[in-house]
Every structure is written in C-alpha cells, then in structure tokens.
Amino acid sequence: GAVVSQHPSRVICKSGTSVKIECRSLDFQATTMFWYRQFPKKSLMLMATSNEGSKATYEQGVEKDKFLINHASLTLSTLTVTSAHPEDSSFYICSARDMAGEVNEQFFGPGTRLTVL
Amino acid sequence: GQNIDQPTEMTATEGAIVQINCTYQTSGFNGLFWYQQHAGEAPTFLSYNVLDGLEEKGRFSSFLSRSKGYSYLLLKELQMKDSASYLCAAMDSNYQLIWGAGTKLIIKP
User: Given A43, A49, A107, which is nearest B87 (Cβ)?
Assistant: First the structure.
C-alpha cells in the first residue's frame, strides 16, 4: 500500500521557537495533503488542506500565520508551527491523497508529537 | 450541520464479538471509513463502504445503510491487540472526511 512518512516523529522545543514538520508520500504522488491535530482522547481535527502549487485552505479557527503550510512538490508538504507555545503541544498527523488512486483514498503518516515547554 | 456519533467506550471479552455503531449526517456522501488507532499512533485504514451492505475482511466486517445514515464495524474473535480506538469517518460532497470522536474498545481476558 501507499506509504506516507512524517519527520520528525517527536519534537520537544522551547516556547517561542518555530518547528517544521515534513510530510512525504514515498511511493505515490499527492496533489492534496491534509494536516490534522489530535488532542489526547479526542478525534482528529482537520487544520488545513494543502494543494500542490497553491495556497493551503485553512479550517475555521486555525491561524494561517501561525501554522504555515507549504506544498512545494507532489510528494512533500511541510507544516511550520511558528512561535510555538505550550498550548500548541499536540499530535500532528498528515495524510495524502493518491492522484492515481480513487479520489477518496487517503493515507496517513505516523504522526509527530510536539511538546512545547 | 455535519455530525458523526459513535459510543465513547466499549468493553468486550477476548474471543467474543463486538459491534461498534456509527451514525452520520453530512452534506453529500462519498463513503464511510473505519480506522483503527492505537494510543500514540496515527490511524490505520480498516474499511470503506460506499454502497449499502456488508463488506467482510477477515475478522473485521463493516456495514452501511445510506438511507439510515448508519454504519457498524463488527470485530470477531477478539484479540487483546484489538484494544484500540476505532474512528468512524464520513466523506462529504467535497471529499472531506468528517470524523467521529472515536470509540475506545477495551478487551478483557
């Protein structure tokens, strides 16, 4: 099956620093990637939809200047959490849609656990 | 509005059968997904239904009734490793996944 990787898998940073998370589709091309965050014992919350070569579409309540998304190629999307604060600590998960597959196929990365001190 | 409902938690015994229900309301419908998520890990795909009926895949089966906005995930011959959260997600007319809060399944020996 299709594989999506995320890097790093875990990051601890100081408050005020920026953190970049990479999401890669390893064996397929993805025009669309999705970024989610998940709080403990809660469901996935869609943050934004990332389309290759265009601006990301952010969900209501998500600050686009704080969560910068860049989908520079068909296999890479990055999420940068700028000036991170403790409340940004969460599990961030990306998923990717296979261009060549069914439009409703979505494959998830392993997630990145961010802890902001 | 769009909404997914599923029980918060269920308990079952090893070797038994458990059914996890999910009801949904979405703007348009392009299928119903079930994912398994172990603590601290990302979701993994279990099943996809877009037509009414039962889809069987090994010990897991998923059922869909579009007219009722209802699905269930059936797990047979439960194993301890099946202890996880099970997420129901419906895809709307924009091909966006609308997620339920997940059902935490606890398996007891």
Answer: A43
Answer yes or no: are the C-beta atoms of A107 and A3 closer than 8 Å: yes
**Which residues in chain A are contacts of B35 at CB distance < 8 A?**
108
What is the residue-level pLDDT of chain A in tens, covering all 117 positions?
Answer: 678 999 999 999 999 999 999 999 998 888 889 999 988 777 889 999 998 888 899 999 999 999 999 988 889 999 999 999 999 999 999 999 877 766 567 789 999 999 999
Residue A23 contacts residue A111 (beta carbons within 8 Å): no
Query: CB of A105 within 8 A of CB of A97?
Result: yes
Higher pLDDT: A40 or B82? It is B82
In a mutational test of the A interface, the residue from B3, B9, B37, B93 whose CB has the highest number of chain A CBs within 10 Å is B37
Nearest to B43 among A42, A46, A108 (CB): A108
| Contacts (Cβ under 8 Å, ≥6 apart) of A102 | none
E strands in A1-117: 4-7, 10-13, 19-25, 32-38, 45-51, 57-58, 67-73, 76-81, 90-97, 106-108, 112-116
